[in-house]
Amino acid sequence: MAPSKLSRTPCQPWHPSRRAIVQAGGAGLLGLTVPTWLKAAAKPQSIAPRAKQVIFLFQWGGPSQIDMFDMKPGAPDDVRSPYAPISTSVPDVQICEHLPELAKRMDRITLIRSMTHRMKNHAPAGYYALSGQAPPTDDQRLRDTLDLFPAYGSVVDHLAPNRHGMPTAVSYPHVIRDGSIVPGQHASFLGKKHDPLLFLEDPNNTNFRLPELRLPPNLSIDRLTRRREMQQLVDRQARLLEYSASAKGFDDYYDKAIAMLTSDHVRKAFDLAAEPDEVRDKYGRTTYGQSCLLARRLIEARVKFVTVYFSNSIGGREIGKGGWDTHGFDDSRMYKIVDQYQLPITDQTLPTLLDELEDRGLLEETLVVWMGEFGRTPKINKNESRDHWPQCYTTLLAGGGTKGGFVYGSSDAHAAFPDEDPVKPEDLAATMYYLLGIDPATEIIDRHNRPLVIGGKPLLDVIA
After folding, report:
1. What is the mean pLDDT of the chain?
2. Closest CA to 58 of 312, 344, 392, 270
3. What does pTM read for this prediction?
4. Which domains does the chain have, with CATH numbers?
5. Res 36 pLDDT > 50
């Protein structure tokens, strides 16, 4: 359907946080007494879930909005992309000529063209994108600490965990970093028991197997269980383990790992060898392509939140490796790298994933999110490339109760700033939680006993 500008519907009713209550000092608000207000604040509203699960495809490095999904063919030469725009399955929506297969599926996708924040460095911008919480500083030296917010999958595991033996959240096949590890990839202060199941094995390897799901040949399940019982007895009697914030939940995490080792259902979900070669070829014989195929298998097995990282590095200097960070350093050229690697992989893998989810009846209940930590500068630099630009960029949503063929927000003439309906990462986080049936106004408690709200305002206009 053609994109349309709907009249703005009001966002969900506001839920005052405890911090707001304290700031109000005891004064009534809109006629409410403090006890009534406290009761309203303490109880999250009930939301009917539209999505049962999320596939979060994180494009580390920062893909260019103006060269892909928000092209400005009428812009000046030093702004306009050298790529031509092409028509899509949605009237009046054009995207990059190097994405012809995705153009055919645009009727299943919502484009958010007004994402915006102020973090210009990869680490803080990456943390913002992966947690939905603004970092304390825009400093590339931002370090992963237990004072920072958990990953989306960890919040989901804390508030709405799976109860059928499958992990709630799985992340792979990288731990992303730019020098140091980027925060927002684990459970942080929620405790290790809420960490996503993380593995670093390459799904594109011929003999892909998960060490976490295999026992050493000389260790049986019975022996492992006895060893675990003995360890617990020693820990209790000798009190060797003090539950610091970093160790909190380690026992539960260990027990969950043992449960997965004994589960045929879990092992089968990770068995990519069970897929026909034809299907594997459709996704592309790349780490990212096979990772997206595995995401489909995990969703079928009812994992709630799957995070796939495009690359472990920001990349952008060589063809065939790394992420989207295409400044043109070291005599590299953005338009000789992206159109030979990142764009072809995207145009093969994302359309295949959407097709498979739809063909298997899963797209309606699976929210697919495609995004990076920021976009690229409207103006092309002296290296014939583009630099970091968080002020305006594009995110894609598909399935999970969202509209197809819809554009939310808009940018100015150079895709430099939002022109209409700016969207911050916390609003996107709220939208994901809302679609999963989790109230974005819900608070979680950090290690300093402070209540923190998990999201901003959900984008109700993108919901079908």
Report:
1. 86
2. 312
3. 0.85
4. 18-210+270-462 (3.40.720.10)
5. no
